[in-house]
Specification:
- The protein has two domains: about 325 residues, Alkaline Phosphatase, subunit A; about 140 residues, no CATH class.
- It is built from 14 helices and 14 strands.
- It is α/β, with parallel strands linked by helices and about 500 residues long.
Length: about 500
């Protein structure tokens, strides 16, 4: 169905409500980084990443201490954010680098049909092929990508001049029309310019070393390069906010700053562990939301789309369209609701091409205020990808040249090289070895998720209760993994290069 016809159809199915949030419809600005864990902001205590503009949004509105992504990978996490639905509810869009079925309606289209001027710059939904699904444009909206930097501050940083592209968008906006803009930074996604963090004045001692990474100068340097890109992202956020202030729209703009999934290091990104799914999140709307709030309750990034629609006064779902399952956060933000209840779910299927026959590594998880329970549906598979890959037809690469669900990096290279060192072996194994079917972690005392409590007798009742909640919710919401149709996830196409791996013993 052409996009124009879809928008017209949507317009026929919803109506604008005049309620508390729609007296003066706000602009909506989503600012999303690429691969940033929750601890990597100044307000969260980072010593290596200075983020004054993220902190400003947090202080002007609400800082969320337990915001959970619906997936630890780019495409499915962004699809979930756009639709307000968990990845297992989105067919091909629920896996990485596939397609995006048109029947799953995205909030930018709904807002556009309601009179909003919409657009995006940088990285919208992706990677993947949205055109093969019949979409005429990226699900994030019309692209504003023409403006480029005259000189990049570091080789790994995108040449997209995000702020200038936002300025072009504002210049195109019809007079008095509210806008919805997606600012999708490509930082701190790899690759990085090696040593860029130190060149920016940081020292190795500044790096905050997560407990799942070994102590080594190359790893500290890699973390500094990561932090340098976070700072660049924050600077572009600041330039964007100044434009809003210059046109007098800062107070009536609902600004949301977050990330899609966790840091691109072993046992973080592409894993349902805490560092893979726990996101930074700050929301400000001075015209409606009181400043200085800290929200401790667990929220999901699937809650953002329903929140945007509620702020705009858009009623959804329309008849015959898949509903959003996320929650409207405005009652909590405006003080109408005292506390939020419940936890948040996350999902992983295929990330990169990392296993024989392009197989996935299916995970589902439930994150409560205190615990994280993970179900690994195929524990016989390699979670980080097979250790070896064919470099040419019939020619196997080195014994540890695989692990393609971990982004290539100096950190991974160093850990592979030193994997047999006594201080490294346990952490290397935690990153790449096979895992049990059920894992349980106390994320208040073990956010690195290194002490599995699933078989601990003192946590038996917690495991059983959370496992039942997870399984019941997956069944209720139609996850194919809970039925005989689970292998449908292996059939969804990948529109990126596919590697060749040896056939595993268990597949004989």
């Amino acid at each position: 169905m052409p996009r124009r016809a879809l928008v017209v159809g949507l317009f026929c199915f919803f109506w604008l409500a005049t309620n508390l949030y729609a007296d003066q419809r706000p602009n909506i600005l989503l600012v999303i980084s690429d691969d940033q864990s929750w601890l990597d902001t100044s307000i969260a205590g980072s010593q290596s990443a200075a983020t004054p503009n993220f902190d400003q949004i947090a202080r002007r509105g609400a800082y969320f201490k337990n915001a959970i992504s619906a997936s630890p990978g780019c495409s499915p996490s962004r699809a979930a954010l756009l639709t307000g639905r968990y990845p297992w509810m989105l067919e091909e869009a629920g896996t990485h680098a596939s397609s995006f079925p048109q029947k799953y309606v995205v909030y930018p289209d709904l807002l556009e049909a309601a009179g909003y001027f919409v657009g995006y710059t940088g990285k919208g939904w992706g990677p993947g092929n949205f055109k093969i699904s019949g979409r005429e444009r990226n699900p994030a909206g019309p692209a504003y990508q023409k403006r480029k930097l005259a000189k990049k501050p570091a080789a790994g940083i995108s040449n997209n001049d995000y702020a200038a592209n936002f300025a072009d968008f504002l210049a195109d906006r019809p007079a008095d029309a509210p806008f919805c803009f997606w600012f999708g930074a490509m930082e701190p996604h790899r690759p990085y310019q090696k040593g860029s963090g130190e060149e920016a004045g940081k020292t190795l001692a500044d790096a905050t070393l997560p407990p799942f990474l070994p102590e080594a100068e190359p790893i500290r340097g890699d973390l500094l390069d990561y932090s340098r890109e976070i700072e660049w992202f924050d600077q572009q956020l600041g330039a964007t906010l100044k434009q809003l202030e210059a046109i007098g729209q800062l107070d009536n703009t609902l600004v949301v700053v977050t990330s899609d999934n966790g840091m691109p290091f072993p046992r973080a990104k592409a894993n349902n562990y805490e560092y893979g799914i726990h996101m930074p999140l700050a929301i400000a709307w001075p015209a409606k939301i009181a400043a200085g709030q800290t929200i401790d309750e667990v929220v999901s990034l699937t809650d953002l789309a329903p929140t945007f629609l509620a702020a705009a006064g858009v009623q959804f779902p329309a008849e015959g369209t898949p509903p959003m399952i996320g929650r409207n956060l405005l009652p909590r933000l405006t003080g109408e609701q005292e506390k939020l209840a419940g936890g948040a779910f996350s999902s992983r299927e295929r990330h990169s091409s990392s296993r024989w026959n392009n197989l996935t590594y299916p995970q589902r998880s439930l994150r409560s205020a205190r615990f994280l329970l993970i179900r690994n549906f195929q524990p016989q598979r390699w979670p980080a990808g097979a250790p070896q890959v064919f470099t040419k037809p019939g020619m196997l690469g080195p014994p540890h040249g695989g692990y393609h669900d971990i982004d290539g990096s100096p950190t991974l290279d160093w850990m592979v090289e030193h994997r047999e060192d006594a201080a490294v072996a346990r952490l290397f194994g935690a990153a790449v070895d096979r895992r049990p079917a059920i894992e349980l972690f106390n994320i208040q005392t073990d956010p690195a998720c290194l002490r599995d409590l699933a078989d601990d007798r003192s946590h038996k009742s917690i495991r059983e209760a959370m496992e039942q909640l997870l399984n019941n919710y997956l069944t209720k919401t139609g996850d194919p993994r809970m039925s005989d149709s689970g292998d449908v996830w292996e059939s969804y196409p990948r529109f990126s290069p596919i590697r060749d791996f040896p056939k595993p013993d268990w597949a004989e």
